[in-house]
Amino acid sequence: MAVLCAILLAGAAFAGTPPGGNTVRAAVAANFTAAAREIAAAFEDATGDAALLSFGSTGQLYAQILQGAPFEVFLAADEARPELAEREGLAVPGSRRTYAVGRLVLFSAETGRVTGSDALRDPGLRRIALANPALAPYGRAALEAARALGVEDIVRDRQVIGQNVSQVHQFVRTGNAELGFLALSQVVRSTDGSRWLVPERLHAPIRQQAVLLEAGRDNPAAARFLDFLGSGAAREILRRHGYRTEPPAPGGRSGR
Asked: Which listed residue, 23, 83, 208, 252, has the most CB atoms within 10 A of its CB?
């Protein structure tokens, strides 16, 4: 039943696919939604191939891949799952590479509420939203930052857990949480609310890796999409969306 549910879920995400042409089915981490859509459009303009995107938390997507969902490329929000996919024989060896480095931000929909880490110590604060640390690298980074700041207990006592950073964004926007740990990419173009860009020294680098899955081994469009992520056009889109880019080094490890 779990396998069937995962495949049906992936199939629903690909509903409405136009017939004909070369296509690649990509599982994409939720934080990368806006950038991925823009990159997919640029990819189609450049190659004539279509990238069909399905979004979710990195952990959820990996579970679907394990259960047989028909993804050909995996754009994760961490390094661990693509590396695990290689070890488990689910991905093409040597295809893994870092496509973006994410930034964590503390955000509030209220103007002036967040001016720095002190917002986490506000005695009137009731709820802090973060993505499930077991599934989402941005949630894990949020806990690491809270621990480094000495506010881990405050965050745990007041936390509202979202399945992914997209749901965390909804929690904050709808007032279900006064603060939320988000990906910078989600609010980089927003002019409302208030935010604090969490220093990268407070958490492990959020290196987001992509890998060619075995299901896409014989699909040239899948390899082209993976290569396109490193193109100048894609890197410019990444920067506009608040990501840092690093050239991939041999073995899938990001360069410095």
From this structure: 208
Q: Which CATH class is domain 104-197?
A: alpha beta
CB of 207 closer than 8 Å to CB of 80: no
Judge residue 11's burial from the number of C-beta atoms within 10 Å of its C-beta, 0-12 exposed, 13-18 middle, 19 or more buried.
middle
Distance set, CA 53 to CA 27, 108, 191, 213, 236 (Å): 6, 29, 28, 14, 20
Cβ atoms of 212 and 95 within 8 Å: the answer is yes
Domain borders along the chain are 2-14+23-101+205-251, 104-197
The DSSP call for residue 96 is -
**The model's pTM:** 0.81
Q: How buried is residue 181: exposed, middle or buried, by Cβ count under 10 Å (0-12/13-18/19+)?
A: buried
Digit-coded pLDDT (tens) for 14-59: 433 443 459 999 999 999 999 999 999 999 999 999 999 999 999 9
The per-residue b/e assignment along 13-50, b for 16 or more CB within 10 angstroms, e otherwise, is beeeeeeeeebbbbbbbbbbbbbbebbbebbbeebebb
